[in-house]
Amino acid sequence: MAGKTETLTGLLDRDPRIWRGRRPGTWRAPVIPSGHAALDAVLPAGGWPAGALTEIITPAQGIGELRLLLPLMRRIAGDGRRLVWVAPPFEPYAPALVQAGVEIGRMLVVAVADRRRDLGWTLELLLRHPETGLVLAWPWTLPPSVWRRLQLAAAESGALGMLFTDGAAGGTTAALRLSLGVCEGGLELRILKARGGFCGARVPLML
Which SUPFAM superfamilies does UniProt cross-reference here (predicted)? Predict the structure, then answer.
């Protein structure tokens, strides 16, 4: 019995995807720093989960959600990986992105004619592509089966998927789920779900 216990313990220690709820400090899954020290301090392992989906629930468009992700965009494009925008509600303003230090030569904007039929398929292909580092998408809502496929695609390639939604889907397979609210001088983030950590934290960010 002791031998079996040691074997199981070794397996748990070797696999960073396994989280033991009473030991949040053992979470070792790959992450990319968010560029915001206050946010990294409450995210498991200190950053955005790589090879996974993050769901960002926004009450309205244009409240600062893109400024939140500018450090991540700079890092992804600076590393030579592809930064893909899928069905954005507004055309990305290239001069502002350049001024913020984003290498737009690594950026791709994808329009989706039939969102109901093609959006999930498009996101899955992009997340699986080996050159993709980050996918930003505005699906608003997706069925659970599509969330599962997208999570598998991101895990396969190591890409990050940032999906902006209205929160109507409830439980999703996203590794990280957070909601945004406006506060004086910036945003307040509330962690609703964090794989490998505890939820409920509120983080004000001056952007």
Answer: P-loop containing nucleoside triphosphate hydrolases (SSF52540)
